[in-house]
Amino acid sequence: MDILNNWAFVGIFAVMAPVFPALPIVIAWLLRPHKPNVLKSQTYECGVETVGDTWVQFRVQYYIYGLIFLVFDVEMVLLFPWAVAYNRLDLFAFAAGFLFIFLLADGLIYAWRKDVLAWK
Amino acid sequence: MDCPGLCEALANGGVNLGLAQFISLFIGVVLVSGVPLVTVIFLIWIERKVAARIQDRIGPNRVGPFGLLQTFADLIKLLIKEDITPTAADRLLYNAAPLVSFASVVLIWAIVPFTPYHYGVDLEIGALYFVAVASLGTLAIMTAGWASNNKYALLGAFRVVALLVSYEIPLVFALMVPVMLAGTMSMVDIIYAQSSMWFVFMSPLAMILFFISSQAETGRAPFDLIEAESELVAGFNIEYSGMKFGMFFAAEFLHVFTNGILLTILFFGGWLFPLWNEPLIAFAWLGLKASVLYFISLWIRNTVPRMRIDQVMWFNWFRLVPISILNLLAVAFLVKVMQELGLAPRDLAQATLGEVLPMTIILFLSNVAIAIGLLGQVRSVGRESRLATETAQTATAVGD
Questions:
Q1: Gap between the terminal Cα atoms of chain A
Q2: Strand partners, A51
Q3: How many CA atoms lie within 13 A of A111 on its CB side?
Q4: Is residue B146 a contact partner of residue B157, using CB atoms and an 8 Å limit?
């Protein structure tokens, strides 16, 4: 199979994949009872009426984890080509990639020393 | 685009070429995705049976022989159960979340090579595709928690941001080790690169890291904080009922087995074992290896207690991430040195056992050295905290 065929397959798969879970949901929609009422459709918080808005700002700690993850994730995308070409690399290109991982580790150590990684 | 097999037959039969290609690809998609869809029905039964045995119960045993039809009974119940959408919820995202959750797991199966000749696609960037698709699941859980407009659900979604996102880093670093050793991201070629030696013997640490972080990615015990019953009632899926809840449920069960399959492909040689040239035997080997790993995953799930969120985060950022980076550096450095010295082959797919053996031994020993250093460190930390507790206790006793 050539590359276009491969991606056509992935494309059809990506369209079909949500259809499989949608099918039983639609069948259930046809079979199940529909009797909504005001009390049933309330937000479920163990019987207590909900107080205040749910969609509030959340703690900055979560964002910090998100940011560190983003840094690592982007750099890992850059590392994958290096890993694929690894067996054919000469020493210079190898050292460059190696240095890059060190820089990554340096970022981790910085966050560690800044004490932002521990859950507070 | 070329047009082999069924497509060619259709085109010769007078069907428009484009349509013939579409039909053959479509049938391929249905066949490949049929495997996980059929598997999940039996996985639910296996999971409940294993959990019951570990907890000294019998488990489902009423519907059908050995309770095998229990899943179908549950399915009928879910189908005719009323499905409540809370008025406060964001309807579009609320309904989309279960679909994305299940689709993210099914999509992984597109790149799973079942046998040497039968697979959906052999993408050149298979490993990267897996990372991309698997993180869709995190997105689905976040969407579900946010769209439900429920405080418990939102708290569950908060934890997803922290937990699942953090555990993806050691997962991808561990994934990079087989990619580096095989020199390719294609799943089929990664399996062929293990024809003389499985990667688990070259880097057992990477295998363990991948196993732990993929267990966390499924959001199950000991990492099931996103749906911690005692704190969050049900976590992100609290507002879901009926079939929509069922989809989250099925996605989670399937995800565990999918992780077993991926571990098998990346570290245990996929379908490689005696007689793997026969498609059926190859498929059996893959399934057998994946089942063993799946069982270990269930075993952990049912015996290890849930960790607190601060412990989980500490374990990831101060243990798994540094070890995964260290392991990657060690493997990269050692293999390169050995390649320059001529001790390691540059193409593992063509290498014989004799050529691979020195490399395997050295890599294995380096992994053992890292593990010993780590255990020593854990031991000294444990000793310190024990001493601190004992001193505190003695002080209290004297104070009395």
A1: 52
A2: none
A3: 23
A4: yes
The CATH number assigned to the domain holding A93 equals 1.20.58.1610
Q: How far is CA A118 from the centre of its chain?
A: 21
Closest CB to A32 among B154, B242, B321: B242
**Is the confidence at residue B334, as pLDDT, over 60?**
yes
Hey, are the CB atoms on B329 and A101 less than 8 Å from each other? yes
pTM score: 0.88
Q: Is residue A23 part of a domain?
A: no
Q: Which of B33, B242, B314 sits opposite A17 (nearest CB)?
A: B33
Query: Domain limits at A64?
Result: 60-113
How many distinct structural domains can be found in chain A? 1
pLDDT tens per residue across span B72-94: 888 888 888 888 888 777 888 88
- Looking at the DSSP assignment, which residues form a beta bridge with residue B310? none
- Give B310's contacts in chain A (Cβ within 8 Å): 118-120
pLDDT tens per residue across span A7-34: 888 888 888 888 888 888 888 888 888 8
Whether the predicted pLDDT of B400 surpasses 60: no
The reply to whether residue A94 touches residue B243, judged by beta carbons under 8 angstroms, is no
**Per-residue confidence (pLDDT) for residue B4, from 0 to 100:** 63
Q: Does A71 touch chain B (CB under 8 A)?
A: no
